[in-house]
Write a structure and sequence with these properties.
elongated, single chain, mainly alpha, 2 helices, about 110 residues, 3 strands
């Protein structure tokens, strides 16, 4: 079993199925039911299986990282200038004297 930190679940290294039990008994039950032949694997076979799993995980991580980098937008700071005008009873005192629609004027 391996641990998937994203989903916070155990993952079977034989079939990739997520395991919702964190106990050794739950992991063993899955192995006995789905992969009983792996219980008799020798140390070399287990090590090859672990290396193949690690290689597959590394390839997936590299793929996802490259996709994120490819689709990431460059960070550019965008600023907006907004002019706020106050509506005053006397139009001669308006803070936006040059605009007939002082309430709706926005500058970007």
């Amino acid at each position: 079993m391996d641990y998937d930190p994203v989903n916070q679940l155990l993952v079977c290294m034989m079939c990739g199925e997520q395991q919702y039990s964190y106990s050794p008994e739950g992991a063993r039950a899955h192995i006995e039911e789905a992969h009983p032949e792996t219980l008799s694997l020798g140390q070399q076979q287990r090590q090859r299986l672990e290396e193949a799993w690690d290689q597959q995980v590394a390839q997936r991580e590299q793929f996802f990282t490259s996709q994120l980098q490819k689709h990431a937008m460059p960070h550019t700071e965008k600023t907006a200038e907004v002019e706020v005008c106050l509506e005053i009873d006397d139009p001669s005192e308006s803070t936006c004297k040059d605009s007939p629609k002082a309430k709706k004027r926005k500058t970007f």
